[in-house]
Amino acid sequence: MKVKTILVSQPEPKVENSPYFDLQEKQRVKIDFRPFIHVEGVPAKEIRHEKIDLNSYTAIILTSRNAVDHFFRVAEEMRFKVPDAMKYFCQSEAVAYYLQKYVVYRKRKIYVGKRTFSELAPLIKKYKDESFLLPSTDKLKPEVPKILNELGVNWKQSTFYKTVISDLSDLEDVFYDVLVFFSPSGIESLFHNFPDFKQNETRIAVFGNTTIKAVESKGLRVDISAPTPETPSMTMALDKYIELANKK
Length: 248
Description:
Blueprint: E1 5-8, H1 19-27, E2 30-33, E3 37-41, H2 44-49, E4 59-62, H3 65-77, E5 87-90, H4 93-98, E6 109-112, H5 117-126, E7 131-137, H6 143-151, E8 154-165, E9 178-181, H7 184-193, E10 203-207, H8 209-217, E11 224-226, H9 234-245
Parallel strand pairs: 1-2, 1-9, 4-5, 4-7, 5-6, 7-8, 9-10, 10-11
Antiparallel strand pairs: 3-8
Helix pairs in contact: 1-9, 5-6, 7-8
């Protein structure tokens, strides 16, 4: 069956040169964007109840851009002036780059991992005398606390923001040829909003092994998957699939 419509379960890209827009033009398909999940900040009052005193920490571990936003939001709500001497351990370059929204980069002590949390671990280990705070989501990957405990560092986790299921009720009678998912939370949202969802002829595109498992655990069929050596990005995987499907 041909592909004419695609729903991507993420916010619409803000950049004009997004590969999704190129794909839409090249393959003459309609691509809509709709976040199936969204992030909500935890109020500083709730964080105080966890006995989190920002004065007690000399280093912050940041695993995502959301973590950056919500750390500085909570600091502001608590009227805490983040000291210039604070050390920042960022999981990736993208997170470190985003930190510039809040601090003067060249004047701060910023340590950057390559991509995964395990790649950041050796840098944290070098500074094991610091007192680390990990502001995170309520859906923290289990490997993160496991690695920090193995390092034997002084650290504390606190939930600064939560992943919340979005209301998709307006999509009840809307059908797409392809649904695109990037996390198990997206699949959870699909079934929360539409408990009787039947895949039928709908193709499901999935990014990452954990998301594939979430799809299959619901008895659904994965039609398009990324990353693979041949298609490292979702747009490349979609492009390849549409090329074949629309030729028929």
